[in-house]
Structure formats: structure tokens, C-alpha cells
Amino acid sequence: MKQVEKNEPETMERRDFLKLMGAMGGASVLSSLPLNGQAAAKEIYPAQDITFICYSAPGGSYDLTARSSAPFLAKALREVSKGAKGGNIQVKNMVGGNGAKAAYYMFNDARPDGYTIGDLNRASAYKFMMSQDKLPFDVRDFTYLFSLTTVNRVLISGKRSGITSWESMLAKAKKEPLRWAISSVGGSEHLDTIYVKETVGLNAQLSNWGSTSQAESALIRGDADLHLVAFDFVGGLVEAKEMNLLVSFTEHRIEPSLPCIAEKGFPQIPPNVGGIGGKIVIAPPKLDPEAKRILIAAARKMVVDPGYVEMCKKGGTELTPLFGRDLDNLLEENIKFYTKMAPVYRKYGL
Fold first, then answer.
1. Are the C-beta atoms of residues 327 and 146 closer than 8 Å to each other?
2. 39 within some domain
3. Of the residues 252, 272, 292, the one at which a domain ends
4. Could you identify which of 58, 135, 192, 226 might form a hypothetical disulfide with 128, taking C-beta atoms 3.0 to 4.6 angstroms apart as the criterion?
5. What does the alpha-carbon distance between residue 350 and residue 347 come to, in Å, rounded to a whole number?
6. How many domains would you assign to the chain?
């Protein structure tokens, strides 16, 4: 075997290795080196559960949407990202400031690694950018992932109100102010209610009940006359004859027996009440590009899943998926509308 002479230069690799061993301790260095010189493989996204931050309380429209969609999105994630070990969706309610607490957390505290996503109310474009509750950041900087459904708004009355139709509502409004319940201050339903009230010129007083379920309870008790709500959220109460459907704020009838607002002489209302993009799924700013790609691909797969489509159909939910530039354009259109309406909303303290 050849002996190394004292004056024989060491190879660069051997010399560096000996220096490293001496500086850090041979055993610790050896234990940290990857086997066979190969770098450890990066885990396939998603490698763990994904938290969905829902800004509304349990039982609300957004909460129910998140929970009913979660297993379908998890299934689609596993199909899109083969070999991923995670992907289950855990819904976490973060209530406060009608979405402000959840938005602040998503913007400032959540990591942009794809393991935290959440929902955003369409009215956030006004509330968090232009109102008295303006947040110290621009909601346009969120990562916008997708919006899957149309929010079809309807006007309902409690059976104790004596209001059974649009016409009987107008007649009662001529005699006394109507008691119009809202679920929370500053949300899209509140802004939509103001827009309808002002456009129609309805004699009504608004009162806040804190949530959709509490507003509907007020109608059942007779403490309120009217409430504007998503159509897919009132089926059971209508069937139980606790509520009357008066009108839909859509361009066409969403069911044969329910008139739409265009038939009542207000075709300008539907584009600005409810509509496409009412419920938007977001992630923190500067989301990891690969996580974004996989999440969007999973959403695209979910909307054609027969089970998900059937669930939406049974619940009266209209699927109208928006991604990418289409979703960005919708956000900009919302901002233009709310900027125009800002003087009106401010009259209501918003």
C-alpha cells in the first residue's frame, strides 16, 4: 500500500473533511450527513393537515360551506398530489370584527406555506379598505385562490309579520317602518340590504342580531319582519312554514314560484347583490407557488366531482367557479362598486 509522504499535498476533499471533523466533532458530522451522499427528499405537499380559517361563527353560512366542502377538497388534493401524506381540512372558526380578526391573522400571522387557507367576504373590499374599520393592510395583497359558487340572495319574512308577498310588504311599509334584521354589521349581507333599501326606497329600520341564525330567530318570534339571506340557507325554515319567500335578487327565477327582483321593476339590483364570487377562498400573501398550484388544481377537480356537484344541487347552491384573472377582475369590479356606494354606506355609520 502506498504511504503518504509528509511532503505530499493532501487532496482538497480530504483536507476540508479533516478540518470539518476537527472543528465540529467527527461523530456529530458523520451522523448529519445524508446516506449515500443524497439530499433528503422534500415532502410532497400537502404533508400535513390544512387549517381553514372561517371568519363566521359555527352554524353560519360561511361555516357550513367550509365544513361541507372540506372532505371534497381533501379528496381532490390527494388525487392531484400523488403520494401526499396530508391534506385533510380542519375548519377553525375565528370570530371577531365581522372577519377582521381572521383577516388580520391570515395576513400577518399565518405562514404562506399552503397549510393555512380561509374565506373572505365579498364586502371585505369595502369594510377593510374604505370604512371606519379599515385595516392597516391592503386586502388585494392576499393570495386569491378560487371562488366556486354564486350567492343567490332572497328576501324572507316571518309568518308573524303578516307579509306574504313583495306587494304586501310595500303596502305595510306605507303604514309603518318595516323591521329589517341584519346578521352582522359591515358584512356583505348588510351592505346588500342597504343597497336594496335605498334603491327601492323602502321605509325600513335596520337592526343587528349578530348572526344569520339569530336574525332568523327574530323573524320566527315576530321581533323582526324581514331578512335578506342566501337562498341555500333557508330551505328548511320555508318548508316548516316559519318563513315566506318574497323575492330573489336575481335576473331570472331560481325556482318557478319565486318572483325575481327584475320582474318587480329593479333590473339594476342583481349585479350588485350577492352574485358570483360572494365566498372567496384565500391564502396569506406570497403563498408558496407549488402549494398555490396544487390548491387551485384540487379546486378545479372538486367542482366536477359528482358527489360535490350533487351536494351543491341538493342544497340549492349554484356552481360558478372563478380562478386566476377572472377572480382578480371580480375583485376590482367590487372595489369600483363599493367606492361609488361609499357615501351611502357612511350614512349608515359604516
1. yes
2. no
3. 272
4. 135
5. 7
6. 2
